[in-house]
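May I ask for a protein sequence together with how it folds?
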Amino acid sequence: MTDNKPAYTVRLEEADGIIRYFTSFNGGDGIQQEIEVNRETYLALEDCRLEEKRQANEFERHRERLELSEAQLAARTFLPPMPMEEAVVQAVDMQAALATLTDTQRRRFLLYHEHGLSYEKIAQAENRIKSTIVESIVAASEKLKNYFDSDPYKRGSE
């Protein structure tokens, strides 16, 4: 998409209640030409023009993001990037919190929250019923919430 000039244009003209459809393009000799086309051809060319415009817009949106620096991307996010030390503290705190769970709770919690498996998939893999999995994950979530609520200094972000 190096050339922003369209290969053709379409237009309609109405006179005395009669609508006529036209397309303009450069001929092989480089001379601008215009011909009258039927309604179906006009609509097909207009659809193609709009699709080309949509694709060009999508390309521009993606290109813009690729050309942004890390600082520009960070400035556009809702949350500023976390300093490395704080990220490490949060990771250590989360590991400590996860250690308070039983092995079964930890496994199910991570399968659900980290790996995105559904309750049904976890139940199927463990040959259990869905409600058992839900109860286990809810209990694990409560334990983790209580762990972090009990001591604000355990939370890496505070």
In short: The first helix runs from residue 39 to 67.
